[in-house]
Structures are given as C-alpha cells and as structure tokens.
Amino acid sequence: MEAVVDRLLVLGVLNLYDFFRFAVNFTYAEAYGAVLATIPEIVVPMMARSVNVGHTPGVLEGDAFLYRCQMVLVGLHQDWIRGISLGMDGYDEVETCCVAIFPLHDFLVNENSFIYGGEGGFLREAHMLHMRVLADQDWQSPGNFALLRSMDCATAVRLVVSSQIWLNDDEFYYLYVGLFMVFDWRVLISDNGFTVFEFFLERIVE
Q1: Percent helix, strand and coil across the chain, each rounded to 5?
Q2: Count of CB atoms within 10 A of residue 145's CB?
Q3: H-helix or E-strand containing 10?
Q4: 17-44 in b/e burial notation, b at 16+ Cβ within 10 A?
Q5: Terminus of the chain with fewer CB atoms < 10 Å: N or C?
Q6: Top-tier CATH class for 1-203
Q7: What does the pLDDT profile of the chain (206 residues) look like in tens digits?
C-alpha cells in the first residue's frame, strides 16, 4: 500500500501544467514555489529522498519529466542546475543520480550500457558551440569524485537521460531509465584539447 501511495503522490506532483498554463511569465522558480506552498507536508519529505541510494519511491523506470524542478520535487534528483546528485553511503559521499542531456558528451551504448561524461568544463556553453567541453575537467570536483566513490563502494546510481539521447527524439524531455553501476572510468583529451572524464555505467539487473 505504501508503494501505491508513493506512486499517486508522484503522479500528482509531476503535473505542473496548471502552474504554467495560466501565467505567461511564470518561471520554474514560481511553479516550484507554488507546489511547495500548496502541499509542503508532502513535497518536503519527498525532496529529501534525493540523497538516498537506489530507486526513488513512486518513480518508475520510463517516467518522463518536462522540467528538472519536477525531478527535484519528487526526490529523484537533487539540483536544478548540476547533473549530479550527492548522497551518503555510510561515511562515503557517493553519487545518487546522474542527469545526462548533452549528446556531444554523454553516449548511449545500448539500453544496458551508458557512457556518462564528467562534470565541469562549461558543458552547456560547449554544447551550444558544438564542442564537448571548453575547459579541463577535474577529478576533485564534487560530482566526479562522488562517481569515483560510487564505483569504489559499488553503490547504485539512478540514471536520467534526455529523450534526444535515449530515444533519438526531436522533442526534449527527461526520462528515468533505471539503476546503473559505475564499473570503470577513463581520462581522455577532447578534440579541442581539454581533459575529459568518462564514466562507464552498466544497468543493475534486479
């Protein structure tokens, strides 16, 4: 019964359509604030679950999200901007969720294997210029270090991928594709001469 309730709550929070429909200049922050103000007793505990390792209760593989703030509200992901969520596994800071949205930086091998490009390097700006990165990536950045710790600790990572990468879809939305394990990584030099990290993820068969 608890799983059913979680699922209903997620489905209720996922639909932010009404918050955007009636205000031309309604921002993500205002929609986010409206949800928090309307049902804080539900949303705040859900958001706190983003630091947990494993599936987010109520969120199923294949669930789609139009906005990153929706993923934050349901506790799937932790941050509006960064692609990496951090959490704790015992005393180790590990990765709990990766969001992959840049086709020049993140690569689908098949539905069970994914190459996640590292954090840093001004990815959004690089993508707009059809480049991979615009600066060196660093293993000491919080996200890259957490991914390395996730590999060392063998913890599960939730993977969210844009529809453009996962389905080769022209329309952009976020797709939760399941739990993966970081099993390897490497450092390479991009075509424009900067250091890039790649993390190799394999699906966890449950």
Answers
A1: 35, 30, 40
A2: 18
A3: helix 2-14
A4: eebbeeeeeeebeebbebbeeeeeeebe
A5: N
A6: mainly beta
A7: 455 556 555 665 545 444 444 444 556 666 666 666 666 666 777 778 888 899 988 888 988 887 787 788 788 898 877 888 888 665 578 889 999 999 999 999 999 999 999 999 999 899 999 999 999 999 889 999 999 999 999 999 999 999 999 999 888 889 999 999 999 999 999 999 999 999 999 999 87
* Token pair listed for 169: 């879809």
The residues, any chain, with a CB within 8 Å of residue 82's CB and separated by 6 or more, are 119, 143
Helix (H, G, I), strand (E, B) or coil at 119: coil
Strand partners, 18: none
Could you tell me the CA-to-CA distances from 85 to 68, 100, 149 in Å, in that order? Answer: 12, 12, 13
